[in-house]
Design a protein that fits this description.
mainly alpha
Length: 453
């Protein structure tokens, strides 16, 4: 009698399918007439696009969020953003914790993969910290936003503040203020500061949070010891984040300073605000205080690079990640200096970390290239606009040179798939249907050198 075969999904497959399932459920809810501001259902492709951009915390929209959707639709979008930012597995674990259900080994392994952690030790405690920290930061952000939005919008300003805070922390870039994102608040110091703070905190990653808090509790009076005591991951994430923000702001200030369509008419202080915000938001947030189509070509290229890099691992941001870039740069430096070891901050990197960094960049590049190629073929728009759209989707940023609303059916499908690839990770998606091969290390192929470069 033949044995009955059962389908067993890996943790990676479960994570990928959970995102897909949430996107489909979200699209059905947004397709309902109650979700539309007009009371009539929007096209299903637009509902699917909006659900995908929300769950994948991207921010590209085919319909203006503030006017196209009803309060119910806005609530659905916000829930999808929060679920996508935290991760479906995290939300499911939160419900289990609230219901006081015990987590088994398989649940803990699932969480370990969802957060890309090295072990399952203390993973439940980590999830509790993530949930608590997320709601605290989003709550503080909402209260600060209310100082501006309540005077401007009245009681509705409370809802706008909550929506904007969650969207900013989750690096989604979707808002319900106006159709031109945050351009009306381009020179408001409080809105700029709060938005940047939420974006950076969400993009740094939860692991960095707890490492910094734990270290400062231990060595708070000795700042030098605090920095030295941080983990290598935190040192790289913090230093690369600061470096990229400053470098991007300086370059935007230089390239846009006399651009009449962006910064020319502003004061020196406001120009610095605009440059700093553009540098922060391009690293996967998606809010805009400058119309992206008005940027110079030089600034657009800088934006493309920053979008491709993105935020840090185990956070709400997308892109190849700051730590990945640091590993590649360190590898290049060691190769140029003809060194066998790859060192960062006095620590030697493992071959596994280097291999993973190369894989992430290669798969991300392939995703962007294929998306750009297909979108160029079906749309006929300018190459720079198409590249901006594709990189923004793949890195889950949400900035657009006003191309998204003009996409046709196939253009929307291409961007939907690109956003999904960008959120779940190209390598994870490649593993989705991969089969585990037993005894793969028993037979080794012969080694031979090749000419590189």
């Amino acid at each position: 009698m033949a044995k009955k075969r059962t389908l067993k999904l890996t943790t990676t497959q479960l994570i990928l399918l959970s995102f897909l399932f949430t996107i489909v459920i979200g699209s059905v809810l947004l397709y309902l007439p109650i979700s539309s501001a007009s009371g009539k259902s929007v096209s299903y492709i637009d509902a699917l696009f909006t659900s995908t951009t929300s769950v994948c915390v991207t921010g590209l929209v085919t319909l203006p969020t503030v006017t196209a959707w009803s309060p119910f639709g806005h609530a659905v979008i916000l829930c999808l953003i929060q679920i996508g930012g935290l991760g479906i597995i995290t939300v499911m674990s939160m419900l289990m914790i609230l219901l006081q259900k015990k987590m088994g080994l398989s649940d803990r392994i699932l969480l370990q993969d969802a957060f890309n952690l090295n072990s399952i030790s203390g993973v439940v405690k980590f999830v509790k910290k993530v949930i608590k920290g997320t709601f605290i930061v989003e709550g503080i952000g909402a209260l600060l936003y209310m100082c501006v939005f309540v005077p401007d919008f009245g009681i509705k300003g409370i809802w706008i503040s909550v929506f904007n805070s969650i969207s900013a922390f989750c690096n989604a870039g979707i808002d319900i203020i106006s159709e031109n994102s945050l351009c009306d608040y381009a020179t408001n110091p409080l809105v700029n500061a709060v938005t940047c703070m939420l974006i950076i905190l969400g993009g740094l990653g939860f692991v960095v949070w707890w490492d910094v808090i734990k270290t400062f509790k231990r060595f708070g009076k000795h700042k030098g010891r605090c920095i030295r005591a941080l983990s290598l991951h935190s040192k790289i994430a913090l230093s690369m984040t600061a470096f990229l923000i400053v470098l991007g702001a300086v370059m935007f200030l230089a390239f846009e300073y006399n651009n009449p369509e962006t910064m020319k008419g502003y004061s020196a202080f406001d120009k610095i605000q605009l440059s700093l915000f553009q540098s922060v938001t391009t690293r996967t947030a998606g809010f805009a205080t400058i119309p992206q189509q008005n940027l110079t070509d030089a600034s657009s290229l800088v934006s493309l690079l920053l979008m491709f890099i993105g935020g840090s691992p185990v956070g709400t941001a997308g892109g190849i990640k700051t730590v990945t870039l640091a590993v590649l740069l360190a590898t290049a430096r060691s190769t140029v200096k003809n060194k066998n070891e790859i060192n960062i901050f006095g620590r030697t990197l493992s071959k596994q970390a280097v291999g993973k960094a190369v894989g992430v960049v290669c798969m991300s590049f392939v995703t962007v290239f294929v998306s750009t190629l297909l979108l160029s073929a079906v749309s006929g728009f300018a190459l720079l606009d198409v590249m901006y759209e594709s990189v923004s989707a793949a890195a889950t940023v949400g900035l657009s040179r006003n191309l998204t609303p003009m996409l046709d059916f196939w253009g929307k499908i291409i961007i939907i798939v690109t956003m999904y690839f960008g959120r779940v990770g190209p390598i994870s998606f490649a593993v989705l249907f991969g089969l585990k091969r037993k005894n793969e290390n028993i037979i080794k192929n012969p080694t031979e050198d090749v000419r590189v470069g």
